[in-house]
Amino acid sequence: MAVSLSKGQKVDLTKTNPGIKKIIVGLGWDTNKYDGGNDFDLDASAFVLGDAGKVKDEKDFVFYNNPTAAQGAVVHAGDNRSGVGDGDDEQIKIDISQIPAEVQKIAFTVTIHDAETRKQSFGQVANAYVRVLNEETGAELIRYDLGEDFSIETAIVLAEIYRNGSEWKFNAIGSGFQGGLSALCGNFGLNVG
Question: 44-89: per-residue pLDDT in tens?
Fold first, then answer.
C-alpha cells in the first residue's frame, strides 16, 4: 500500500523498500473548465543536482528534448501534450543503482508550456499528483496529491528524491513559481537567458 504524503513530509524510499533498484516517478493532472481557447500542455521535468542543490550543466536538466541524464540513470519517458486520459500523464524512470555518486538530489517539476501567452496558470489545473512506483512490480510506493494551493503559478517543484547516507528519501515539496520554466531553471542554477 502506498504512503500518502502531505506538503513538506519526507519518507524513506530505499530503506522501506530494500533491494529496489528501478523506480518510475509518475506525474498527473487534469485541467478545470477553461474557455481561453488554448489547450493546456504541461511538461514534467527533472533537475539532477549536486551538493549545492544546483545542476552542473544543461545536460542535468531532463525533459522531452533532453530525455536522459546521470549517465542514463534518469530517463524522461516522453511528452504528453494534452493530459487526456487516466493514469500518469508523464513519467520519469530512474535506476537508483546507477545514479552517479556526485548526484545528491533529483527534483521533479511541472511547468505549463507557453503559459504567459496562453494566459494559463496552475489555478486552472486540478488533481495534480506525483507518485513513485516500483518499476519491476508496478506497485505504487509513495503518492503526493498537490491540492488546490496554486492560483497564479506557472511552474511547480512537486517533489525530490535525495541521498541520506547510503539511502534515498522522498520529499513532498509543492513549491510554486511565477515566471515559468525560466524561473525554475534559475532556481536550480541553469541560465536559460
Answer: 999 999 989 999 989 999 998 999 999 999 999 986 655 455 688 8
- Give the contacts of 111 (CB within 8 A, at least 6 positions apart): 42, 43, 45, 154, 155, 156, 180, 181, 184
Q: How many contiguous H segments (helices) and E segments (strands) does the chain have?
A: 2, 13
Global pTM value: 0.91
Three-point CA angle 6, 11, 17, nearest 5° = 135
Nearest to 111 by CA among 179, 190, 34, 24: 179
Evaluate the CA torsion angle 111, 112, 116, 121 in order and state its sign. negative
